[in-house]
Design a protein that fits this description.
By secondary structure, the chain is mainly α. 86% of the residues lie in helices and 0% in strands. The chain contains 4 helices and no strands.
């Protein structure tokens, strides 16, 4: 996911997780919750798969760089300095940056999904509150 798609996703998240003000919209929102959960679960699963792929790419790149700096570089690096060389490699740093950015997006999606799952409880609590208010003691 790129930043532009994430900005669009944030606007969808805001609309999907918002609790309506009037009763009819509230009931419609309650009926939409299962499909919202399904949609956000799909988004979460896709983003999680992307993060896992980046983790594997990072591990693979790290392994190749260890092999390069240990056996094929012109300089015989001591083991303790190989990590420093790897962490200064532009390709490795790009993978690390991409991974951290995608993890941020994943966390946002995870929190949005949790908020949407909690909407049904909020709606139930609101309806219970309305019953108590409208009941004459």
């Amino acid at each position: 996911m790129n930043k532009e798609n994430f900005v669009k996703l944030m606007s969808f998240a805001e609309a999907d997780a918002k609790l309506p003000d009037n009763f009819d919209d509230l009931m419609n929102k309650n009926l939409q919750i299962p499909s919202l959960i399904q949609r956000w679960t799909k988004v979460y699963t896709e983003q999680n798969a992307l993060v896992e792929r980046l983790k594997m790419d990072k591990g693979e790149k790290y392994g190749k760089l260890v092999e390069f700096y240990r056996f094929h570089d012109k300089i015989a690096w001591p083991d303790r300095q190989i990590d420093g060389q790897i962490n200064s490699n532009a390709d490795f740093l790009k993978i690390c940056r991409d991974l951290e950015e995608q993890k941020f997006y994943l966390e946002y999606i995870k929190e949005t999904l949790a908020n949407i799952k909690g909407l049904s409880f909020q709606i139930k609590n609101y309806l219970d509150y309305k019953k108590i208010i409208s009941t004459n003691f």
